[in-house]
Design a protein that fits this description.
The protein has ten helices and twelve strands. The chain is an alpha+beta fold. Cytidine-5'-monophosphate (C5P) binds next to strand 2 and helix 5.
Length: 299
């Protein structure tokens, strides 16, 4: 018997970052949108904990205990006093180290899959609690849709959306480490000698999401990590410019990057932007995906 869970990628339509906290994390106002690029996590009983992975980026995925899927299985097993004897297979379609919560998706997926396989029936609250221990973005991978995350980004409020938003994602030639991007954010703040205001969700952005109007969303998106990602990976500016020139309503770095995200008015416009980006030579590959989509779901 095995259980498969499908989990979406995310794009941050707003990522407001506060000053570094004493614990090294940053308070955020993080508006997540789940989009239709998915990993599938399959768990099967086994003699011990084992992870395998397939997909274009599979070679970059750690197959040891540091993988968030492994940590999720161990965390759930420990809570319920059992051993995590399970083979976890990840069919990976979300870019690795891309700023689209691919690792978090696998953590949430493994958690929901093991809960089902082991017949635990943990409550939503318990699952969200384990997700928050695993990482700041993991609770959102469980919930999906659209949500505002505060604190480290793990305290979620579900948001209304008035329709589907059509996106193009450009994958970069290499990944970026999230801690490195936050460190660069801190360095840029120190260099500028500026005060970092407390992060606040933008009312205009929440209205735009609720209205489903892509033009309104396009003028409201923001990402405070974008200057840091561009500082570490300056060539991303060329990708952003290529997408804008191709007619995207707006272009931004997704989360800590280096994946870049382009909003289009509809599915047809997204395909056109995707074709132009693919021909621009400024990225490794291009994908089209719409959101919101549901979070971790048992297939
Ligand atoms: O929570 P998670 O393990 O995914 O975070 C990865 C890293 O990103 C953290 O170790 C920290 O460096 C940075 N981070 C942060 N503030 C947040 C979330 C993440 O500084 N709110």
């Amino acid at each position: 018997m095995s259980v498969t869970v499908r989990v979406p990628a995310k794009v941050n339509v707003q990522l407001a970052v506060g000053a570094a906290r004493p614990d090294g994390f940053h308070d955020l106002a993080n508006v997540f949108l789940a989009v239709g690029l998915f990993d599938e996590v399959t768990v099967t009983p086994a003699a011990g904990l084992r992870i395998t992975c397939e997909g274009p980026d599979a070679a970059q995925v750690p197959l040891d205990g540091t993988n968030l899927a492994a940590r999720a299985a161990v965390a759930l097993a420990e809570r319920y006093g059992r051993t995590p004897d399970v083979h976890i297979h990840i069919a990976k379609d979300i870019p690795v180290a891309g700023g689209m919560a691919g690792g978090s998706a696998d953590g949430a997926g493994a958690l929901v899959a093991c809960d089902e396989l082991w017949g635990i029936g943990a409550s939503r609250v318990e699952l969200l609690d384990i997700c928050a221990e695993l990482g700041s973005d993991v609770p959102f991978s469980l919930v999906g849709g659209a949500a505002l995350g505060v604190g480290r980004g793990e305290k979620l409020t579900v948001l209304e959306t008035g329709g589907d938003f059509h996106w193009v994602f450009a994958m970069a030639e290499r990944g970026l480490s999230t801690p490195a991007v936050f460190r660069e954010f801190d360095r840029l703040v120190a260099v500028a000698d500026s005060e970092v205001p407390p992060p606040v969700a933008s009312a205009g952005l929440l209205d735009a999401l609720a209205s489903g109007d892509p033009d309104a969303l396009a003028v409201s998106v923001s990402n405070d990590l974008q200057p840091a990602a561009l500082s570490l990976f300056p060539a991303l500016a060329d990708t952003l410019a290529a997408g804008r020139a191709a007619g995207a309503l707006t272009a931004l770095v997704s989360g800590s990057g280096p994946t870049t995200a382009f909003l289009a008015r509809d599915a047809g416009a997204a395909r056109q932007v995707a074709e132009a980006l693919a021909a621009s030579g400024t990225c490794r590959s291009v994908r089209v995906a719409a959101g919101p989509v549901p979070g971790a779901s048992v297939l």
